[in-house]
Design goal:
By secondary structure, the protein is α/β, with parallel strands linked by helices. The protein is 35% helix and 27% strand. The protein has seven helices and ten strands. Residues 13, 16, 18, 36, 38-44, 83 line the site of adenosine-5'-triphosphate.
């Protein structure tokens, strides 16, 4: 299973520093909540950890090797669930989960089995044949989570993936994310929800890009 190390990692957009230099060491099985107000830098941190943007300074290493690109990160099992979900609206929920598995050369039989299990885990076993565009915002968030769960990622970066859910589904999805950590994945959840943050092993608060530990990681 994976471990993630960020050293002196910072993110900037021209002269706007979104994340001030930060060090993180996330061992396999760790669930970290990243909290903070809108614009605090949560998405920027997750995108940098996902190899989806080039840091202004510092580095991200996964299993000791630095990330070279988003494609490299995807190949190495780093799954980013972006805000807005990144789903293909004209495909069904099932197709959205299945296609990335087939692209990763998972056999069709296993891909179908994993797709069914992941949709069941998020409570959408009845909605697999619906077009994503015809699903509610909360259902779409659950499809995006199912898609990430089905890949059995070593690192799961979830950007406010429970923000549109009712309390029951939020609890269920946070428990599923916790289950991913118990499986051994590194899970990072950016969230405004104190209850979701409380479930994580540690909480890092960002404010104008400056990180403060609300609950620090403990050595495992
Ligand atoms: N593509 C971009 N170009 C320029 N500035 C950006 C860009 N993306 C984010 N920013 C700026 O970087 C800062 C951090 O934004 P970011 O989206 O990381 O915050 P956030 O904590 O995820 O916010 P939210 O909770 O609203 O999603 C903000 O000042 C934002 O305006």
């Amino acid at each position: 299973m994976s471990e993630v190390r960020a050293q002196g990692l910072s993110v900037a957009y021209d002269d706007v520093v979104a994340v001030q230099p930060i060090d993180l060491e996330l061992g396999a099985g760790t669930m970290l909540a990243v909290t903070g107000p809108s614009g605090a830098g949560k998405s920027s941190l997750l995108w940098a950890l996902a190899g989806a943007l080039t840091p202004a300074a510092g580095s991200v290493h996964v299993d000791g090797a630095s990330l070279t690109s988003r494609d490299d990160a995807t190949t190495r099992g780093i799954s980013l669930i972006p805000q807005g979900n990144g789903l293909a609206g004209a495909l069904t929920a099932e197709e959205n989960v299945l296609v990335p598995l087939l692209a990763r050369k998972v056999s069709p039989r296993e891909a179908l089995q994993r797709t069914g299990a992941a949709l069941a885990l998020v409570g959408l076993e009845q909605s697999g044949r619906h077009l994503v565009d015809e699903l509610s915002g909360g259902q779409q968030q659950r499809v995006a989570l199912a898609r990430a769960f089905a890949t059995r990622a070593g690192v799961l970066l979830a950007d406010e993936s429970t923000s549109d859910l009712d309390a029951g589904n939020r609890e269920r999805m946070v428990a599923a994310l916790q289950g991913e950590a118990k499986r051994g994945a590194v899970v990072v959840l950016a969230t405004h929800d104190p209850e979701a943050a409380a479930v994580a092993d540690a909480e890092l608060a960002l404010d104008e890009g400056v990180a403060t530990w609300v609950r620090p990681l403990t050595a495992t």
